[in-house]
Write a structure and sequence with these properties.
Chain A is an alpha/beta fold and 325 residues long. In chain A, 41% of the residues lie in helices and 11% in strands. Chain A has a single domain, classed as 3-Layer(aba) Sandwich (Rossmann fold). In chain B, helix 1 packs parallel to helix 7 and helix 9 packs across helix 10. Chain B is an alpha/beta fold and 332 residues long. Chain B is globular, with a radius of gyration of 20 Å. Classes of the chains: A alpha/beta (325), B alpha/beta (332). The interface between A and B is large, with 54 and 52 residues.
C-alpha cells in the first residue's frame, strides 16, 4: 500500500470538493437527470478512510457516495458520465448518482435505501472470513441510518461472527432535514449504540483527515488481524442540503458558520502551512484540481447519450432481460 | 435410487451441491441444528462450521449477508424459515438482490438462493405462517422463482437453482415436506424455466405450481371418471416462465384453467392467464379461468381454512364450467 503524504491527502480532498461543486452546478443547470446527494464538507472521511484500505479491500457507501467511489480510485470521467447520463457511465447509465459502483476499485456500491448496505457489508466480510483472504470491508453510512433495523441486525451479526468489517457512521447531524438529536434517545447516534454490540465507543473528528486515517486505520488493522468489527462515529457536516435540491434552510446560520470554520480543507491547509508548506503550493493544487474537473466536465458533456438498447441488458447473468419463453 | 421425502430431497440437494462446489455455504436460523423443517439435517456435521452458519433472528442480515457473500464469489444458500418472513427483508430481496446487477451495469453477480417453507396446504398455519407468496416476488424483475411440486422436483430444481448464476427464490411447500418418492442418486438436476406435462389430456389444460399440481392431478382423476381428459402442467418455475409450454398445451386442449394457492387478486395465475388470452385467443374454446385461494388473510380453524383453500373439487367445478356448451353472448 502506498502511504500518501499530507499533501496527497489535501490534493485528493481538493479534487473531491471541486468534483462535487461541479456536480452541484451541473444539477442547477438541469444537466443531471435525477437526484444528486453531495458529499461537500465530508471529504476527510472518504479520503482518510480510503487511504488506509488496501487494493482488494471492500468498501460501500450510500446514495451520498461519489466521494467514496472516487477516493477508492473510480475513474472520475466514468462517474461524471453516470451523473450526466452520457456514454461511458460507470454503471452504464442504469445506476445514476445514487448507485455509483466501481468493483474494479473495491467500491462495491452505493445503496439508496437507508441501512440496506450494512447487511451486505457484513456478507462481504463474512466471505472474506470464510475464505481467509485478509480482506477488510469498510461501510459508510449516515447518522440517520442508526435508527433503522438493518443497522442493528448487521452490526449485531458482524459482532457475533467477529467479521472483518469497519462500520463508519458519518454523523453530519441531520437525518435529511431533521436534527439527529430529535430522533435518538442518546447523545450520539453511533457511538452511544456501540456498547449494545459489545463494541468500543469510538468518536473521531471527521473533518480532520489525519485523525480519520489514524482511527479508521487502527480499526482496519484490528479487523485484518481477526479481532472483529468496529463501529466508528466520524463527526462532520455537510456544507449543502440533503440533496442538491435542498437549500437546507432548516439549519441555523450560526451553526453553519461554525462548521464552515471547521471545513476539512481549511483544516488540512492550516496543518500543512503550519508544518512549513508554502501556501502558494496549496493554491496551485486547488487551481489545478479545479481546472481538471472543469476539463473533465467539458469532455463528458461532449459525449453522446448511451445507446438506448442498454436499458435491456444486465438483468440476468447471460445479459438478457426476458422473464418468459 | 433412494426413497426420499421432500424434506430429505432438499437436504440431499444441498449436500450434493456443497460436496460438488466448496463455494456453496448455508446460513439461516437454526440451520446448523438441522432447521425447524429438518431440511438441513446433518449438513453441519458433514461439512463443518465454515459451511453451515446459524444466524440470529435477523432476516435482513440473513438476506443481506447472502448478497454480500455472493458479490464476493461464494454461492450462498440462505434459509428464510417461513416465506411470510420475506416481508421483514423485502428491501434486501426486492431492492438490492434483484437489482444490483442491473444498477451497476453488470459489475456484480448475484449467484444466490433464498429458500424456505411456503404455502398453506390446510395445515392451520394461518395468516403469518401459511401464505403462498410467489406472486410477491413475481412483480420484481431480476428474481427467478422456483416452486417444486414433489420430492424429485425439490431435489432437481434446488440443485438447478444453486448452479444458476442469478438470484433464485425457492419456495418449498411445507405441506409437501413429508411426501416420499423414489429419486435416482444425483439427479436429475432440473433446469429453470421448463414446465413439465405430468399428465396428458385433450379436453382442458390444468396449469399448477407446487401443491396445486397434486390438486390438479386429483381433479384430473375425478374428471377422467366423467370421460373428460385433462392435461396437467407443472409450471415448476414462474420466472423464467415456460409460456411456450402453456401455449402449446392450450393449443392442444382449447381450454385453460390456472390453479394457484395464493389469493387471486393479482396472483401469478393472472399473468399466465393473460399470456394465454393474448397469444392463444384463436385456439381457446372457452374463457381462461383461474382457481385461486380466497381473497382473505388465511384463517386457522380447519373449517374456515377449507372454505378458502384451493381444492380438487373447486378445480373440477371450474372445468365443468369451461366445458359447458357456450351460450351466445348476444354481441355480434
Amino acid at each position: 500500500m502506498d502511504v500518501p503524504d499530507d499533501l496527497d491527502l489535501f490534493a485528493r480532498m481538493c479534487f473531491l470538493r471541486h468534483f462535487e461543486e461541479r456536480a452541484d452546478a451541473l444539477y442547477r443547470q438541469g444537466l443531471i437527470h435525477g437526484p444528486v446527494h453531495l458529499g461537500l464538507g465530508q471529504e476527510a472521511v472518504a479520503v482518510g478512510a480510503a487511504s488506509v484500505l488496501r487494493p482488494g479491500d471492500y468498501s460501500l457507501g450510500t446514495y451520498r457516495g461519489h466521494a467514496h467511489a472516487l477516493a477508492r480510485g473510480a475513474p472520475p470521467d466514468a462517474v461524471l458520465a453516470e451523473l450526466l447520463g452520457r456514454a461511458g457511465g460507470i454503471c452504464g447509465g442504469k445506476g445514476g448518482s445514487m448507485h455509483i459502483t466501481s468493483v474494479e476499485h473495491g467500491y462495491y456500491g452505493s445503496y439508496a435505501i437507508v441501512g440496506a448496505h450494512l447487511p451486505i457489508a457484513a456478507g462481504l466480510a463474512w466471505a472474506a472470513k470464510i475464505k481467509r483472504t485478509g480482506q477488510v470491508t469498510a461501510c459508510f453510512f449516515g447518522d440517520g441510518t442508526t435508527n433503522i433495523g438493518a443497522f442493528h441486525e448487521a452490526v449485531n451479526l458482524a459482532a457475533v461472527w467477529r467479521l472483518p468489517a469497519v462500520f463508519v457512521c458519518e454523523n453530519n447531524w441531520y437525518m435529511e432535514y431533521t436534527p439527529i438529536g430529535d430522533v435518538i434517545p442518546v447523545p450520539l447516534p453511533a457511538a452511544d449504540r456501540a456498547a449494545a454490540y459489545g463494541l468500543d465507543r469510538i468518536v473521531v473528528d471527521g473533518n480532520d483527515v489525519a485523525a480519520v486515517r489514524q482511527v479508521v486505520g487502527a480499526a482496519v488493522q484490528m479487523a485484518r488481524d481477526g479481532h472483529g468489527p468496529s463501529l466508528i462515529e466520524a463527526q462532520t457536516y455537510r456544507l449543502k442540503g440533503h440533496s442538491a435540491a435542498d437549500a437546507a434552510g432548516y439549519r441555523p446560520a450560526e451553526e453553519v458558520a461554525q462548521w464552515r470554520d471547521r471545513d476539512p480543507l481549511l483544516r488540512a491547509r492550516a496543518g500543512l502551512t503550519q508544518a512549513g508548506t508554502d501556501p502558494a503550493k496549496l493554491d496551485e493544487i486547488d487551481t489545478k484540481t479545479r481546472s481538471d474537473v472543469a476539463e473533465l466536465a467539458r469532455e463528458v458533456l461532449a459525449r453522446p447519450a448511451p445507446d438506448p438498447a442498454a436499458a435491456w441488458t444486465d438483468v440476468w447473468s447471460d445479459g438478457s432481460w426476458q422473464w418468459r419463453s | 435410487m433412494a426413497q426420499l421425502s421432500y424434506r430429505q430431497a432438499v437436504a440431499a440437494a444441498l449436500a450434493q451441491e456443497m460436496a460438488r462446489d466448496e463455494r456453496v455455504v448455508l446460513l439461516g436460523e437454526d440451520v446448523a441444528s438441522g432447521g425447524v423443517f429438518k431440511t438441513t439435517a446433518g449438513l453441519r456435521e458433514r461439512f463443518g462450521g465454515d459451511r453451515v452458519w446459524n444466524t440470529p433472528i435477523s432476516e435482513q442480515a440473513i438476506a443481506g449477508a447472502a448478497m454480500g457473500a455472493a458479490m464476493a464469489g461464494l454461492r450462498p444458500v440462505a434459509e428464510i424459515m417461513f416465506a411470510d418472513f420475506y416481508a421483514t427483508c423485502w428491501d434486501q430481496v426486492a431492492n438490492e438482490i434483484a437489482k444490483v446487477r442491473y444498477m451497476t451495469g453488470g459489475q456484480l453477480s448475484m449467484p444466490l438462493v433464498l429458500r424456505g417453507a411456503n404455502g398453506s396446504g390446510g395445515l392451520g398455519f394461518g395468516s403469518q405462517h401459511g401464505q403462498s407468496i410467489e406472486n410477491w416476488a413475481m412483480t420484481v424483475p431480476g428474481l427467478k422463482i422456483v416452486s417444486p411440486s414433489g420430492p424429485a422436483e425439490a431435489f432437481g430444481l434446488l440443485a438447478g437453482a444453486i448452479r444458476d448464476d442469478d438470484p433464485v427464490l425457492v419456495f418449498e411447500h411445507k405441506a409437501l415436506y413429508g411426501r416420499k418418492e423414489e429419486i435416482p442418486d444425483g439427479g436429475p438436476v432440473l433446469p429453470l424455466g421448463r414446465a413439465a406435462v405430468v399428465r396428458e389430456g385433450t379436453d382442458v389444460t390444468l396449469a399448477g405450481l407446487s401443491i396445486t399440481v397434486g390438486i390438479c392431478q386429483a381433479a384430473a382423476d375425478q374428471l377422467a371418471q366423467r370421460g373428460v381428459m385433462a392435461e396437467v402442467l407443472d409450471l415448476r418455475t414462474l420466472v423464467p416462465l415456460d409460456a411456450a409450454a402453456v401455449l402449446a398445451s392450450v393449443r392442444r386442449t382449447g381450454r385453460l384453467i390456472v390453479v394457484e394457492e395464493n389469493p387471486g387478486q393479482l396472483g401469478w395465475g393472472a399473468a399466465v392467464a393473460a399470456i394465454a388470452a393474448e397469444e392463444a385467443f384463436d385456439d381457446l374454446a372457452a374463457p381462461v379461468t383461474r382457481v385461486s385461494g380466497g381473497n382473505v388473510p388465511l384463517p386457522v380453524a380447519a373449517a374456515l381454512e377449507a372454505e378458502v383453500d384451493v381444492t380438487a373439487d373447486r378445480v373440477v367445478a371450474a372445468c365443468q364450467q369451461v366445458l359447458a356448451p357456450r351460450q351466445p353472448s348476444g354481441k355480434r
